[in-house]
Every structure is written in C-alpha cells, then in structure tokens.
Amino acid sequence: MITLHHLENSQSFRIIWLLEELNVPYELKVYARDKKTMLAPEEYKALHPAGTAPIITDGDVVLAETNAIVDYILDKYSEEGQRLRPAQGDKNRVPYLYWFHAGQGSLMPMLLMVFIFNSMTEKTPFLMRPLIRRVTQTAATFFPMPRIKKLLGYMNDQLEENQFLAGNELTAADIVTSFDLMTIGRIKLFNFQRDYPNIATYLERVEAIESYKKALAKSEK
What we know:
The protein folds into 2 domains: 2-84, Glutaredoxin, CATH 3.40.30; 93-209, Up-down Bundle (Glutathione S-transferase Yfyf (Class Pi), Chain A, domain 2). The chain has 11 helices and 4 strands, in the order βαβαββααααααααα. It has helices at residues 13-22, 42-45, 66-76, 78-81, 93-122, 129-142, 144-158, 172-186, 192-195, 197-207, 210-219, and strands at 2-7, 26-31, 55-58, 61-64. It is globular.
C-alpha cells in the first residue's frame, strides 16, 4: 500500500487529491514544518535525497516529484486511473500532456521566482527595503509576470469551450495544475474574476468536486 508523506502546506496536497479521486487505500503521514524556518523537518528530508514534497513510499519504492508520483500511481491503479489520463489517440491526449506538464514545468517555476523576489524584500533591513522592492518589482515585471500572464491567458481561452483543462472531464492535468491556480488566488497575484473569468469559473467547478473537498479536509488536519 502506498504511504504518502505529506508535508503541511505543500504540493503534496495534489497527491492526496489524486488518491481520494481514485478511491484507493493509502496511508497518510503528516509532517509539520519547522515553526521558525517553515522548512521540512529533518525526518522528512531523510526520506529521499531531494528532501522535498511530495514523497511516497510503496514497499521498496521511494519516489519524489509530483508528476513522477502521479504517473506511478496511475500506472499502479491503471483500471481506476484510466479516466484521469486520456489514452494515445484520444482527442484530449495532447491538451492533457500539455497542461499536465505546464503546471510544474512552466507555471510553478515562475511563481517560485515571484515568491523569491517577495522574500528578498521581506528579509532586507528596513531602510533598504524601498530600494530592494523597486529592484525586485522591476525584475518581476520583465521576466516572470509576462510569462505567467501569457500562460493564464492561453488557459482562459481554452476554458471558454471546455469545463476542464483537457476536455469536459477531470484529469490528472487538473489535479496538478489547479494547485498552481489556487496558489495564485491565495497570494492575490491576480483577480481571476476580473482578469481571467473562465479560470475563476473553472476553479469554482474544481472546488465543488467531492474528492477535492475530502483531500482539503485531510490536508488541513
């Protein structure tokens, strides 16, 4: 049986959601972040050389990286998971592949860059903050923000005709990429209702899914 090692307030929420959606047995081990550094505890870091969430164990298997874990689980539970991963030749296969990887490969790295810029300002001595804030805001304006806006604009257009990222049914692409959108909403980087209304409607649809609500409840315990 799979054990999900869940670091609180982390990307491992996606894996809880996936397992709940598949309705398969699993064990959930929750790890609290260090209250001072907000980093993972040493016990968690010792699980895998990467030391980052999410991590699963399954017998002798120890696996990190969100998309690798999602593929592993969908392979293990191929019968239950086939509806979450369009097959080769399916018309939704290409958009599925794109959005499944765009969340982690394009959107999340840009968001992390924004977080780093914000953190630089917060950790700078008070008298230096105005200068550092101007520098980081200028840097964000020239690089991560235009790329984030372009990606969200494309997504918003795709959701004009589809209920989900790869057609009209939930797939693993939604489980992976909607987490990034929730993060954007939480830090108020954009106003989805105003700037990307189709994404706003999509997120309301996602939040109404029963497996999502179950995963949210488990992740917040």
